[in-house]
Amino acid sequence: MRNKYIESFEKAQLENRNIPEFRAGDTVKVAVRIKEGSKERVQNYEGLCIAIRGQGTGRTFMVRKMGANSVGVERIFPLYSDSIESIEVLRKGRVRRAKLFYLRELKGKAARIKELRRK
Fold first, then answer.
1. Where are the coiled-coil regions?
2. pTM score > 0.90 for this model?
């Protein structure tokens, strides 16, 4: 059971956010604001969403991309972070699991996810 004051505060925080609907298995592009000294830039991080966890303002999602030399790079993003400028869903994946950690052991074409066909 959650505190009603915390729930009302979180509800006010979540109202003004424009976050698309996505699930584990979807390919997403996350535009992250990075501050380097006095400069600020936006870096795109594109990969497969392999997990979503938490609730309310503490909700996070994990994105896995294949880096150089076929090395997998995973990054955890807070969903309602101010450093996230935008989230774009590129592909909807067809999976039957909520957490896709089994993809860590797969390599090459075996690690692909089928695209969800729209009716």
1. none
2. no
pLDDT classification of 45: cutoffs 50, 70, 90? very high
Rounded CA-CA distance 84/105 in Å is 29
Q: What is the 3-state secondary structure (H, E, C) of the chain?
A: CCCHHHHHHHHHHHHCCCCCCCCCCCEEEEEEEEEECCEEEEEEEEEEEEEEECCHHHCEEEEEEECHHHCEEEEEEECCCCCEEEEEEEECECCCCCCCHHHHCCCHHHHCCCECCCC
The structural domains of the chain, with segments of one domain joined by +, span 4-108
pLDDT of residue 28 exceeding 90: yes
Amino acid sitting at position 90: L
Longest pairwise C-alpha distance within the chain? 49
Rounded CA-CA distance 3/29 in Å is 34
